[in-house]
C-alpha cells in the first residue's frame, strides 16, 4: 500500500511538472521580457531660458555670421529669438530700443575647444579633472561630471562675447571621453548650463600626447601603436553593436533573448558609429590627420573636426572633400615638434580651400579675446593675398563652430527664427580696442560692461573674510 501510494504521488507530480513546463513554454512562445534599451541621454539638460523683453538694436553695423554685412542695420529680438534683421524695422510697443551708433553687432562667439570647469581657477591639483590618465581609451568618462560651474573663467569668457562653448576632456588619451556643449550662463549645476538638444562630442587625440603619457605605462609608445589602439577600439565597438542588434532582432522575433552586458566605454564608441556622437580630434600634423582619415573610412564613422591642426593648410582640399572642420589657433606654433610647421596663414588658407575653418581657444585666457585671434588670422591672410571679408571671416567664430557642434539650426548666425545669441561691440570687433558692451543669450541681456554690479561673481572672487572680521 505504501509503495502504491508513493507511485501514485510520483505520477501526479510528474503530471504537474509536465503541465508547468507546458505553461512555461506557452508563455515563452506568446510573451517575452521587455526589450532592454540604453538611454542615450541619462543626464538631460535642466536649462531654462531666461525671461526677456522685446529689444531692438539700431544704427549698427551687422555681421550676420554667414557672410552678410548690413551698414546702418537693425536687429529685433523677441521671445528669445531673432524676429527681424535689416535696415528699416519698427520696434514693437513696450520694446527696449538701443541706439548703437558707431557700434557693431555679431552673433555670439562659440568656442569649440574649452576646458573651463574641468581645469578651473584657482589652478590647483584638486581642481585638475580633465584627463583620466588610467587607460589609453577612456570613452566611458564624461567631461560634464568634472565641470565646476563656479569657475571664474566662465564670466571672463562672457565678457569676451562667448555665448556657447564645448568643454572637452584633455588630450592625454587616444580616446579621452565625452565632451559637452553648454550655454555660458552662470548656474549651480552643469545640467542647468547644458545646451538643450546639442549632441555629445567625443574627444580623441593623436600624435605626441598619448605617446608621451603611455610610452612609460606599457604603451602605446609610437604612432603605429596609437593607430592600433584606435582600430581595436572601433573593432570592439562594432562587435558590441552587432550583439545589441542581434538581441533586438531576436527579441522582435519573440525568442526572449538575454540582453548583452552593458559596457559604458563601448556605449560611447558605438554612439559614434551610429552617428549620434561627434568626434573632435586633437591632431597637429597633416600626415597624422591623413592616417585618421584612413581609419575613419575603414570603420565608417565621421570626424567632425580636427583640433589645433597647425598643418591643416597642407591638406585643406582633403578636409573640404571629407566635410571635416579644422579648429585652429591664429598663431600658436613651435612649442613641441608636431607643432613646429605651423604658419600664421593656416586659418585663411583652410577657408580659401572651401573647408570649414574655426578659431578656437584651448585656453582660459585666449577664450577672452577670440575676436582678436580671428582678426590676426584675417589680417595674416590679407597680407598674402587672401582677400577674405570680415563678414566671411566671422564664420570662423560662430557659424562654423555651430556646425561642428551640431547646433547650427539653433544658433551661430543672426537669422530670423534662430536663438538671439549676439554681442554689441563698442567698435569694429576686428580691432584690438573693441569691447563686448552687451551680450545676449536667448534674447536676455546677460552681460553689461557698463553695469559692474550685474556681473556674475564666483565664490573664489568674493573672498573668505567677512566685513568687520579681523581674523
Automatic annotation (TrEMBL):
Organism of origin: Fluctibacter halophilus
Domain Amidohydrolase-related intervals: 104-442
Residues of the signal peptide: 1-28
PANTHER family for the chain: COLLAPSIN RESPONSE MEDIATOR PROTEIN, HYDRANTOINASE/DIHYDROPYRIMIDINASE FAMILY MEMBER
Protein name, per record: Amidohydrolase
Keywords assigned by UniProt, alphabetized: Signal
Top-level taxon: Bacteria
Protein's UniProt keywords contain Disulfide bond: no
Cofactor: Zn(2+)
Keyword Coiled coil: no
Amino acid at each position: 500500500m505504501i509503495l502504491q501510494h508513493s507511485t501514485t504521488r510520483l505520477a501526479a507530480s510528474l503530471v504537474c511538472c509536465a503541465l508547468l513546463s507546458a505553461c512555461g513554454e506557452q508563455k515563452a512562445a506568446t510573451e517575452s521580457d521587455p526589450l532592454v534599451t540604453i538611454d542615450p541621454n541619462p543626464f538631460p539638460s535642466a536649462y531654462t531660458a531666461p525671461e526677456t523683453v522685446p529689444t531692438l538694436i539700431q544704427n549698427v553695423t551687422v555681421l550676420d555670421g554667414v557672410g552678410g554685412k548690413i551698414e546702418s542695420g537693425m536687429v529685433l529680438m523677441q521671445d528669445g529669438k531673432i524676429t527681424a534683421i535689416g535696415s528699416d524695422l519698427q520696434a514693437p510697443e513696450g520694446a527696449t530700443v538701443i541706439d548703437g551708433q558707431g557700434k557693431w553687432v555679431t552673433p555670439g562667439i562659440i568656442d569649440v575647444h574649452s576646458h573651463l570647469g574641468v581645469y578651473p581657477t584657482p589652478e590647483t591639483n584638486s581642481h585638475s579633472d580633465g584627463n583620466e590618465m588610467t587607460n589609453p581609451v577612456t570613452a566611458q568618462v564624461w567631461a560634464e561630471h568634472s565641470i565646476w560651474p563656479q569657475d571664474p573663467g566662465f564670466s571672463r569668457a562672457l565678457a569676451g562675447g562667448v555665448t556657447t562653448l564645448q568643454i572637452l576632456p584633455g588630450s592625454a588619451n587616444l580616446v579621452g571621453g565625452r565632451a559637452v556643449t553648454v550655454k555660458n550662463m552662470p548656474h549651480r549645476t552643469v545640467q542647468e548650463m547644458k545646451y538643450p538638444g546639442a549632441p555629445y562630442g567625443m574627444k580623441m587625440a593623436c600624435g605626441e600626447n598619448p605617446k608621451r603619457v603611455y610610452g612609460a605605462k606599457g604603451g602605446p609608445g609610437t604612432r603605429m601603436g596609437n593607430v592600433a589602439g584606435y582600430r581595436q577600439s572601433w573593432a570592439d565597438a562594432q562587435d558590441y553593436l552587432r550583439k545589441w542588434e542581434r538581441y533586438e532582432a531576436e527579441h522582435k522575433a519573440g525568442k526572449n533573448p538575454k540582453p548583452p552586458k552593458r559596457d559604458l566605454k563601448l556605449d560611447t564608441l558605438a554612439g559614434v558609429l551610429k552617428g549620434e556622437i561627434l568626434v573632435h580630434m586633437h591632431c597637429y600634423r597633416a600626415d597624422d590627420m591623413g592616417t585618421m582619415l584612413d581609419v575613419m573610412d575603414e570603420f565608417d564613422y565621421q570626424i567632425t573636426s580636427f583640433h589645433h591642426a597647425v598643418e591643416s593648410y597642407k591638406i585643406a582640399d582633403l578636409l573640404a572633400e571629407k566635410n571635416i572642420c579644422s579648429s585652429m589657433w591664429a598663431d600658436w606654433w613651435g612649442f613641441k615638434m608636431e607643432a613646429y610647421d605651423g604658419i600664421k596663414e593656416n586659418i585663411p588658407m583652410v577657408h580659401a580651400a572651401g573647408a570649414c575653418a574655426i578659431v578656437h581657444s584651448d585656453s582660459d585666457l585666449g577664450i577672452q579675446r577670440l575676436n582678436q585671434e580671428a582678426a590676426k588670422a584675417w589680417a595674416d591672410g590679407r597680407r598674402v593675398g587672401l582677400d577674405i571679408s570680415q563678414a566671411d571671416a566671422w564664420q570662423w567664430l560662430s557659424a562654423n563652430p555651430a556646425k561642428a557642434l551640431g547646433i547650427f539650426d539653433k544658433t551661430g548666425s543672426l537669422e530670423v527664427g534662430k536663438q538671439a545669441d549676439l554681442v554689441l561691440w563698442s567698435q569694429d570687433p576686428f580691432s584690438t580696442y573693441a569691447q563686448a558692451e552687451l551680450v545676449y543669450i536667448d534674447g536676455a541681456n546677460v552681460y553689461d560692461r557698463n553695469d559692474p554690479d550685474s556681473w556674475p561673481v564666483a565664490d573664489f572672487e568674493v573672498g573668505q573674510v567677512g566685513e568687520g572680521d579681523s581674523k
